[in-house]
Amino acid sequence: MGDANKILDDMNDRSREVFRTVVESYLETGDPVGSRTLTRSLSEKVSAATIRNVMQDLEYLGLLDSPHVSAGRIPTQMGLRMFVDGLLEVEDLRASDRQKINATLGSNTADVGSMLDRVGAALSGVTQGASLVLTPKHEAEIRHIEFVSLAQDRALVVLVFSDGHVENRVFTPPAGQTPSSMREAANFLNAQIEGKTLSEVSGLMRREIADRRQEIDVLAQDLIESGFAAWDSQGDDQARLIVRGRANLLGDGEKSEELDRIRVLFDDLERKRDIAEFLELTEDGEGVRIFIGSENKLFSLSGSSLVVSPYMNSDRKIIGAVGVIGPTRLNYGRIVPIVDYTAQLVGKLLSDRS
C-alpha cells in the first residue's frame, strides 16, 4: 500500500480532484464517467481535452480503467483501495440508521443466536447489501459431561457449561458399550475437565488417555475418543455464520456474469469455505476494515467488497464479527459507520448479558 499512497501524494490538485470525482460518481451511479461529465463538476474550469489527458495518466498509473468501448472511466481495484485509504470521507451515522439498528436489537431475548440473526436482518435492511454475522464460539468452562445411550448404534454426548449453557451431539459409539463403560468414561472425563474450556480439554484428554491407558477400560477409552470426535469434527459449527440479504445483491439490472459471481460467493459462504479466516481478517486491530475484491480470498471470485468489524467481550477479546457484502461500488462512507456502530452495540449487549 505504500506505493499507492506515494502515488496519491505525488498527484497535483487537478489529478486528485479528477480521480476523486470519477470514483465518487462511479460509487453513486455504477456508470463509467466521461470527460464531458467532469467538465461540469470540477471546481476549476478546464477543457475536456485536458481532462482526457489527466484520465489517461490515471489509467497509466493503474487507478482507472476503460470498460469495453466506453469513452468513460471507472476505478480499478487498486484505485478503489487508494480512494478508501486516502480520500474517503466517512459520514456521521445517520439518526434513521441508528434507530433501525437499535429497534431491531431492542427485544432482549435470552437466545444469543436469535439476537444475532436480527442483527443480520437489520444490517442487510439498512445497507441494502448482504450481511454477515459470525457468532461467538462458546468458550465457557465445562462443568459436567455425560454419555447417554439412545440405541445400539447411537449415543448422545451432553456438555454442561459453567454458565448454564447445555449442548448435545449425537454420535456412533464403538460396539459393545455397557452402562458401566459409559459411567466409567464420564467419571474419567469429569475428573479432568472441571474449570477448563472445550478447546483446553481436547488436548488434555488425549494426553491423559495416553498416559493412563492401563487404568481405563478399553471400551470406555473408545467411547471417550469417539464422543470427543463428535465435537472436534463439528468444531467450526460452534461459530455459526449468519448470512442475510442475498436478494439485495440480485437486482433486476444486474448483468448475467455479475449474477454468476454473486451465486459463486453465496455457494462459498454456504459451504463455509475459508470461514475460519473470516474472523482472523479482523484480528489485526480494532475498528472497521474494508476488503475490496481479491484482497480477501473468500470474495475474490465474486468481485465483491466486504466491510467488516470485530466485536469484543467484556475482556476486550475478539469473539465475533459483523460485516456487509456488496458490489465494489458500495457507498463506503455511509456503510463504515453503520458496521462500526453495530459491532460496538453487539459487543456491549453480549458483555452486559454475561
UniProtKB/TrEMBL annotation:
<dbReference type="InterPro" id="IPR036390">
    <property type="entry name" value="WH_DNA-bd_sf"/>
</dbReference>
<dbReference type="InterPro" id="IPR029016">
    <property type="entry name" value="GAF-like_dom_sf"/>
</dbReference>
<comment type="similarity">
    <text>Belongs to the HrcA family.</text>
</comment>
<dbReference type="InterPro" id="IPR002571">
    <property type="entry name" value="HrcA"/>
</dbReference>
<keyword id="KW-0678">Repressor</keyword>
<dbReference type="InterPro" id="IPR023120">
    <property type="entry name" value="WHTH_transcript_rep_HrcA_IDD"/>
</dbReference>
<keyword id="KW-0805">Transcription regulation</keyword>
<keyword id="KW-0804">Transcription</keyword>
<feature type="domain" description="Heat-inducible transcription repressor HrcA C-terminal">
    <location>
        <begin position="115"/>
        <end position="336"/>
    </location>
</feature>
<keyword id="KW-0346">Stress response</keyword>
<comment type="function">
    <text>Negative regulator of class I heat shock genes (grpE-dnaK-dnaJ and groELS operons). Prevents heat-shock induction of these operons.</text>
</comment>
<dbReference type="InterPro" id="IPR021153">
    <property type="entry name" value="HrcA_C"/>
</dbReference>
<dbReference type="Pfam" id="PF01628">
    <property type="entry name" value="HrcA"/>
</dbReference>
<dbReference type="InterPro" id="IPR036388">
    <property type="entry name" value="WH-like_DNA-bd_sf"/>
</dbReference>
<protein>
    <recommendedName>
        <fullName>Heat-inducible transcription repressor HrcA</fullName>
    </recommendedName>
</protein>
